[in-house]
Every structure is written in structure tokens, then in C-alpha cells.
Design goal:
alpha/beta, 5-stranded parallel sheet, 9 helices, 45% helix, 13% strand
């Protein structure tokens, strides 16, 4: 929400882009909604979302092909600005402490990523949002000030959050879902489910059993 305020001020000419906190890293286990969060942020800001990943960059080809794909992604983002450049699987870029036969390969990739992240600050209107489930595998330089310095942890949803997810996506179909669970519950749990308000707001007892 702070970013939305800053972006609105930037569009009005009341805030310089260098004053906007425009780079962040989403950290969380697989399936917790990091990509969904990026889409939601783009919808909130009302700007395009350009999604790519380290796996996309590291497709088959020589080192030069990989570096070119990296540069092309940032160039496309500059052309779309204001927009969000979403980079998934940031940990796949490797780190410069690798040893062995491919040490120079990973050094070049990380160095290019650093150049692009630093250069994007000069390209107004581009928000860079990275995502990872293995933050310990990211080169520390990518996380320093001016790069992916802000970190947001997206954890597994609580029971309350799951109930909200079901309500959002199922709507009136939430009741059939509850009914489908009845054969697997003890008799007293079934009674409590019937006494619920039908919106997925299960009682603490039922929540603990479903958990």
C-alpha cells in the first residue's frame, strides 16, 4: 500500500523515482502464493506485470544466450514502465562462491544480474520483485542496499486464511465442500459443522480436527 501511494505521487510528479522503494524479495515455501501476490500487487497498482524466472533465463544455450535473455527482460520492462518485473526462482542464478569447472559461468551470471539491478534504478517506473523458496542460496550481493534489499516472508496459510481462500474461490459451493468432509469426521464434529454459519468459519474444535 505504501508503494501504491508512492507510485501515485510519482505519476503526479511529486516524488522522484529514486525516492520510491521499488525492489523487494518474496520469500516462502512452494505454493504459498508468491506469484499470486505479484499479480495482486500489479492489480493494486494498476500497472502491467512482466513475469520471468531464472529457469527461463538459463534455458539451453551458451553463456552469451543466457546473458542476452537477462538483458532482454529488463529492456522489455523499461519499455512497459511503469510496470512490475517479477523474477521467480532468484536462487537459480547461483552465487559467485561456486568452485570448480563452472565457476566463471556463475560469476558472469551473478555479475550481470547485479549490473541490471543497479541499472534499473535509472529506468523510472520499473518495480523489481524477486521470489524464492531458498533464500540461503542467493548471492549476498543481490540482497544488498539498492537491490533486493526489502524482504517479505509469505508463510503457509493459517486455518482462518484457508477458510477465507475457500470462501473467495468457492463462494456458494463452500457448503458442498463441507458436506464432502462429513464422512471423514467423528459424529460430534459433524454436529459442530452443521451448527457453523456455512461460510467456512468453523469452530475452534472443528478447526483443530481438520488441522
Amino acid at each position: 500500500m505504501d508503494l501504491k501511494i508512492d507510485l501515485d505521487l510519482y505519476k503526479q510528479g511529486r516524488l522522484h523515482w529514486r525516492e520510491v522503494s521499488s525492489k523487494a524479495l518474496l520469500v516462502g515455501p512452494p505454493g504459498t502464493g508468491k506469484t499470486t501476490f505479484a499479480r495482486a500487487l500489479a492489480n493494486t497498482l494498476q500497472i502491467p506485470l512482466l513475469a520471468t524466472s531464472a529457469a527461463t533465463w538459463l534455458q539451453r544455450g551458451h553463456l552469451g544466450d543466457v546473458l542476452e535473455r537477462m538483458s532482454d527482460a529488463f529492456e522489455e520492462a523499461r519499455d512497459l514502465a511503469p510496470c512490475i518485473l517479477f523474477l521467480d526462482e532468484v536462487d537459480g542464478l547461483g552465487h559467485r562462491h561456486a568452485h570448480g569447472e563452472y565457476m566463471d559461468y556463475w560469476n558472469n551470471i551473478v555479475n550481470r544480474a547485479l549490473e541490471l539491478l543497479d541499472g534499473i534504478a535509472k529506468s523510472e517506473g520499473v518495480v523489481v520483485l524477486g521470489a524464492t523458496n531458498r533464500v540461503g542460496h542467493i548471492d549476498h550481493a543481490l540482497l544488498r542496499s539498492g537491490r533486493l534489499e526489502k524482504r517479505f516472508d509469505i508463510s503457509l496459510p493459517s486455518i482462518e486464511a484457508l477458510a477465507g481462500i475457500f470462501r473467495t474461490h468457492l463462494g456458494d459451493d463452500i457448503e458442498p465442500l463441507i458436506q464432502s468432509a462429513l464422512p471423514f469426521l467423528a459424529a460430534d464434529s459433524r454436529e459442530e459443522l452443521h451448527e457453523s454459519d456455512g461460510r467456512g468459519d468453523w469452530s475452534p474444535t472443528v478447526r483443530s480436527r481438520l488441522n
